[in-house]
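Q: Hi! First time asking for a complex rather than a single chain. Here are the components, and I think there are two in total. Is that enough to go on?
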Amino acid sequence: MQHVPKLYKLTETNISRVHHGFIFVKNLSKKEPSFILATDVGSTTTKARFFGKVGNEWKFLSSGEAPTTVEKPVEDVTMGIRNAVREVEELTGHQIIDYSSRELKFIMPYQGGKKGIDVYVSTSSAGGGLQMLVEGVVKTITAESAQRAALGAGAIVMDVLSVDDERDTYEKINTLRFLRPDIVLLAGGVDGGTKTHVLEMAEILAMAKPRPRFEIEFLLPVVYAGNKDAREEVKKILEENFDVRITENLRPAIETERVEPARDAILQLFMEHVMAHAPGYEKLKKLVSTSIMPTPAGEGMMVRKFSELKCVNSIGVGLGGATTNVYSCFDGRFLRTVSANLGMSYSIGNVLKEADVENAKRWVPFAVSAEEVMSIVYNKMIRPTTIPMALEDLVIEHALARESIKMAFNHHKYLARELKGLKKERTISDIFEEVKAEETYLDLFRINYIIGTGGLLSRAPRRSQSMMILMDAFQPVGFTSLVQDSVFMMPHLGVLSTIHPEIALEIFEKECLIYLGTVVAGAGRSKVGSEAAKITVEYNGGRKETLTLQFGKIIRLEIPHETEVKVTVSPTRDFNFGAGFGRSVSKTVRGGVVGVVFDGRGRPVYVPEDDKERFGMLLDWYASMNLYPKEKIEEWRSHL
Amino acid sequence: MKASKESFAYTPGLRVTPYTYVRRLRSLPLKGEILVNKGEHVNFDTVVARCCLEGMPHIVKVAELLNIDTEETMRYLLKKKGEPVKKGEPIAKYRALFGLVNKTVVSEVDGVVENINEITGHVTIREPSKFLELTAYIKGKVDEVIPNEAVVIGTYGAFIQGIIGFAGENFGELRVAVSNPQEVLDASMIAESDAGKVIVGGSLVTYEALERARKVKVKGIVAGGAKMEDLEKILKTRIGVAITGRENLEFTLILTEGFGKLPMSETAFQILKENEGRTAAVNGATQVRAGVLRPEIIIPLEKSGRRQEKEELGEGKMKVGSIVRIIRFPYFGAIGKVVELPIELNKIETESYVRVVKVELANGQVVTVPRANVEIIAE
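A: Yes, that's all I need. Here is the structure of the assembled complex.
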């Protein structure tokens, strides 16, 4: 369904300022705060961000990080928050914590000078996040819509069951009996259609009686968002052992998907039940100025706002410790996916398992054995809060980051598809055999921006490293601008935007977004070293630069974000840069902290199998991108 | 450079203590029956509680099998809700055209008719319940009884947490097979007489040793490290996330340091050596996630006047003088003393700016490492 951005009536009094195409609207109904503290209680690290108004502008003042404390000896998330905030206090000299209280308490409101805050908000993905089980009738119709609704709420989907998922009933029951979800979403059937199949799925659930993750006595919540005519029967089947919540059908007609009511019901239950059971959350709930939000929900909110305000198509990625979250806003359609068990700390072992050691090693420009890679990766998995000290260690983590995003993006593309089952006025059971896999609607040539966030990307010592990770993982084509979250504050700003949207957007544009640059890449293949395209770069004032881009090479021009250049690409017949194979294309682009990058590696990126050839090529790319210190690149090159 | 005298650092909370009071909650997955009383002495294998696990439900699609309309199902059923059925016994029968068309649906399992759904035409048969018995796991005293749900067993003893383990609970006599924490445990060090024992190795347990342990039927192996590729071979699967305990391995394997050849911490090795010959409970279950679980070795001991170690290390207050262990390459496993805690962010080899700690190693070398890469082992 097409999303319509919220429209504001603009008047002279409510426009705060206009900047880079963003219109900042004042919220006249609330007293503006002076200092804001925001935290994200991640699965690995708790990140505190401190913002304040300096003169007339909102600034990011400082950050503090500490390991999330859900582990013994401190099973209380507020302890990790306290440690992260103490770091902010040490670095700024601003007193935030009320030390007269044994329990964590903040000095609120702001007391003047360097004392106190007005607002405290938080997101969280600790405690394993929100884990859901999804049931639908047809795998590619209601089960897929239900999956989108669950993912839209920021959930990790543990399993998706449907009548046609090729598992026998006893296998479904056996699977359900051992799952420990937080919430079940049950969907199926269009309004007025057949009830039999959705009741069958309810029956399976009732028989299996999966138990919730927390507490023996607690009734597992089930959100029913299926055929409205089956509501009473579903209730009857499930109410003895489940806490049944009824919402609108998420697929009221075969051609309509309406996931918002189900998503809202899930978020409501998340706040009521799941958060309440994680260690220390009861205390945290009393501290925040607005509801705690799942991290992916906060992150996605900012990706969506960015796309809507700029009127562009974009893809966002939140590379976390336990999960990798991908967001897309394409032609007004917003989609969020959370790939469980793909992440850079707790789940790094699984990234290696799923990607395979050889795939991870193809991004590493020096000889390393599979055993060494496994040792680094698996030791990180069991001690997830440690950070790389040696550069080689960092290179291996960055290789895994590319693979994690790549796999999460594949998952995302699977769900970024047109609604299935259209133009068929038959019963659902008739459609079973008519579903064919279709291509994603995400056309990379039409993606204007890729936005990266998450601890690893934000903490990458050089911005060029995060740009390269995003380039290798998404492999954009045509002209794509790459942006990243400066110090990982997108989830924080997402939750802040629910109560102070104007402040959140001001900080987002000025302090959060780092424009890495524009990548200009072509789809195609050729012989290494042969010409892929002729490129002309025209600067303001008439200066022109002509380049020849060879297949297998990267050329980077140091052009800042403030500078606009006109780029004309005339590809050979083997390459397509957006206008078709062999057809010229021109666009005006901006650079960034890394610059404008011409990527002649083809799509998919050509990585030689031979070690020596590959190391040489990787080192050329990394040198062009200024990815690592020159002396280190030379040291690696000397081993060739 | 500014420096603080103390700082809050996080310690993953791995405990290694020669004498403490250990309590273990033995909890039933469902409400059930508690078989012991408060104050009662129990052994490792004493059954302390049990509950009834509901049998597997089987949904029989009667209407579909008889090719009738769902609302007609009741007419053809031979069994009522609550009635027991035997495997092979007919539960529905359809007869038409004066007996020319005969269709029968039989039960594929022994059980009870739990539900008949007239809308879907399905009959649910539930298999008989099974008893789940819960043992004490450690030798000790029943400290607490939570009626119908759980008991808490307590004992004085040595307690060592590992970093990752495989397979669940076991117990056996401890035998230290190596002479020092650096030595590798290979197959030749495991004898036939080690059946039923918990064998302690040094820095690495080889694949051959793991295979030998399986053949000899040892109850457990405790070592500093193991190679991941060897573990894959023995477990016949690759691990994705650190959530373990249900592997199909005949013995419990506990790694105290991690993956690779990593000498066991001197303290842990000494405790195991001191207690050689005593019976230890071992559990490989690990969960490096929320509500974290680490694998453990518990050696129950008689109550003595020995000084009891504090229950927990608290919230990880790191001070100048704290003894820490470095937990990431290139100094993995090195133990040293904190000599400085700079407040400012420092640039490390990766070019990252992070909070660091300066640690003096045993050889006098002072190294600067990220605070995130140390764990406090003594304040």
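A: Chain B has a mean pLDDT of 89. Let me know if you'd like any chain examined more closely.
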